[in-house]
Amino acid sequence: MSQILVISDNEILNQLYVTNLEVYLGAKVTLVDATKKGVELFKKSVPDLVITLNMINGHDSASEIHNYIVLNKYKSRLIVIGNPGKEMDSVIVVPNSYNLQNLIRSCAKELGVTAKDMAEKEMPQYYPIEQEFLSKLREVPCSVYIQMKNGNYTMVAKKGDTIGETIKQFVKEGITTLYVNSLDRLLIINMISLSIVDFLKNTEGLDTTEKSEAVKTGFNFASQSFTTSPEVTAEIVNIANACTKVMEEIVNETPSLKKLLSILNSQRDGYVYTHSILAAYVSNHIIRRVSWGGESHIEKINFVLFFHDIMLAPIYLKHPTLKYEEDLLFSDALNDKEKEVVLNHARLAAEVIVTYKRAPIGADLLIKQHHGITNGIGFAIDFKDDISPLSKIVLISEAFVEEFMKLRDQNPDYILDVKKIIEVLTEKFKKTTYKKIIETLENFPGN
Length: 447
Ligand SMILES: [Fe+2]
Ligand SMILES: [Fe+2]
Known about the structure:
Distance between the termini: 66 Å
CATH class of the largest domain: Mainly Alpha
Largest sheet: 5 strands, parallel
CATH superfamily of the largest domain: Hypothetical protein af1432
Number of strands: 11
Number of domains: 3
Strand content: 5-15%
Shape: globular
Bound molecules: fe (ii) ion
Helix content: 40-55%
CATH topology of the largest domain: Hypothetical protein af1432
Radius of gyration: 24 Å
């Protein structure tokens, strides 16, 4: 069994790296959070492969461990995650810390593990698909299973079967999650994406509620695939692009924020989805009123709003009573790992989006900056001029929506008082560049 040493102080990545390296490569993985501890481990047993983050706690871990290996003439191969300042001999660099596929491929190559070996090791054996997505397919492209009470799986449909009626029966019995063999998961994700995109591209004749329902399905499917199977980039971008267009239609045909909220509420949608659409409504208003704003900005912002909080979707699903993002950090209901995701959600989503070839240019940057912090970690209190003008529009739109929703939480009959909300925003965002954007909201339509 190959030995891999991982040196990383990033809790979220640690979890991902260790699980995936063990599952796909069948390797024994040892994790340490400091370069020094890594060096100590060499004295006990020399690893076949070392993976280190480029910088750890302000130290140039990559050079330190590289020098150590060269000096002692160890045979261990070295993979560096990040962007090392200088070139190092026979070192493999994986620039994006979230690109697991690339990392695993590089490790497999170094350890002589073939694609076939990996496919055989692929675990878990079954991949869950919610019925609401599966029911989009007329015929299933592979066998479908349900999980029995004893934990075993039973086949309920085979390739080519129509499944609609069967699913309805299961839903009646309270079974909403079905499964496919995990080797078929890319196939099924691809088929479902095609059918969702196809539906989203043919929305004329639908009313706003139906359109919102379609975007919500796209959003839910994309967010589930994004967090469980990030390699299906093409499918996710196709859905996002199709949703972005329909979001614009929804915004244009709805007369007020209140009306839009009532459409969304009537479907009992999650907070991530609801506030993203409302923020799209507000930012659309702003873009049309800043001198430099154009159609391409609207598309870009809608794409950004579709993805910006996608990492939080599983957390909201688990804690449906929680709402505003900053409150998540202080909630006792969340464990440390979940809080870590909350703190890093802007950066994490941006790191995945940057690998998407057909995403609007710069969308990753806007996602990273959507809480006013350039590296995407945490929430700004003091809003500075070091972020892009479009990021400021996203921030102000989100703040406007949050204020509106908080007031409405207190009083369901709340009548939108734009002036009051503008006062709150002016207090929150002190710089002139932000104030200029806030001014465009003065003629924002009321109720
Ligand atoms: Fe948000
Ligand atoms: Fe956020």
